[in-house]
Amino acid sequence: MPLVELAAESSANVLIHGETGTGKELIAHAIHRRSNCCRGPFVVANCAAIPRELLESEMFGHVRGAYTGAIRDHKGYFEAARGGTLLLDEIGDLHADLQAKMLHVVESGQFRKVGSTRPEHNRARLISATNRPLQALVRDHDFRADLYYRINVLSIAVPPLRERGSDIVEMAEVFLARAAGATNPREFDAGAKLVLRRYLWPGNVRELRNCIERVLLANRHPVISGTDVERVLDTSLPVVAEFGPVRRLAEVERDAIESALRYHGGNRTRAAADLGISRRTLQLKLKRHGAS
């Protein structure tokens, strides 16, 4: 992936975006391993998983006595990642209160621990990741535009697994080799490879890895068949057609619009941004398809 190499050679802030489970953290780790920070730690801060009241302390740390219960100094993510890489995962869920403080760190390279007046220097490479449409969040004033432009110097889009074609089988074979081990080699037959290519993989790379592990647990044969793979998949989902256009383009467009609207809870501004069209264009298409 050329952009990974480019990001590794640069110290610019990187934004990785894609659906849940597409391997955004794996890409961030790959950048870290190839960069000048590779000897330092790789630290992941999940912005969506930290309670709002603890966000500042978890990110920047605190000193003893900063608040009731702070009986000792606490090292935050920025300090823990010193000399290495800090991945701000799910940054689209970062609360507005902390967005301003995060902007200050990105712009000045400094932060303060909670309860301290002494500035600390940030010595960690910053990579951000999100599965949310940040541009739409900026337009809706849910994410700061200035912070967005500071973290999005180099943008890496991670396509969903269903769009990676032959890469699916290649990744599956890597996961198979790792899970099976050198002493128990396994392989897919042609039928298994066909099933892997045709399945839509809504859970992306995470689901693929889980599928391979489940296949190995359920099957002791050296060669894994298409039936073996199908047994562990959600067969209620449609599959990708192998040959020719099987639906009219209008149907594909309508399904894409409906999917985007469902994903964004009916928010037309965000759905339009995800589809790469204006809100007005989306409204015209909805009217054309007979939707209100």
Topology (SSEs and partners):
Elements: H1 2-9, E1 14-18, H2 24-34, E2 42-46, H3 55-60, H4 77-80, E3 85-89, H5 96-108, E4 110-112, E5 119-121, E6 125-130, H6 134-139, H7 145-151, E7 154-158, H8 167-180, E8 187-188, H9 190-198, H10 204-218, E9 223-224, H11 226-230, H12 249-263, H13 268-275, H14 279-288
Parallel strand pairs: 1-6, 1-7, 2-3, 3-6, 8-9
Antiparallel strand pairs: 4-5
Helix pairs in contact: 1-2, 5-7, 8-10, 12-13, 13-14
Structural class: alpha/beta
Number of strands: 9
CATH hierarchy, class of the largest domain: Alpha Beta
Strands of the biggest beta sheet: in what spatial order?
2-3-6-1-7
End-to-end C-alpha gap: 42 Å
The residue-averaged pLDDT reads 85
Let me know the CATH homologous superfamily of the largest domain. Answer: P-loop containing nucleotide triphosphate hydrolases
Q: Total domains, how many?
A: 3
Number of helices: 14
**What name is given to the CATH topology of the largest domain?**
Rossmann fold
Rg over alpha carbons:
22 Å
Sheet with the most strands, sense and barrel status: 5 strands, parallel
Oligomer: single chain
What is the percent of helical residues?
40-55%
Name the helix and strand elements from N-terminus to C-terminus, one letter apiece: HEHEHHEHEEEHHEHEHHEHHHH
CATH architecture of the largest domain: 3-Layer(aba) Sandwich
Q: Can you tell me the residue ranges where pLDDT is under 50 for at least 5 consecutive residues?
A: 241-247
Q: What shape does the CA trace take? A: globular
What share of the residues does DSSP label as strand, in percent?
A: 5-15%
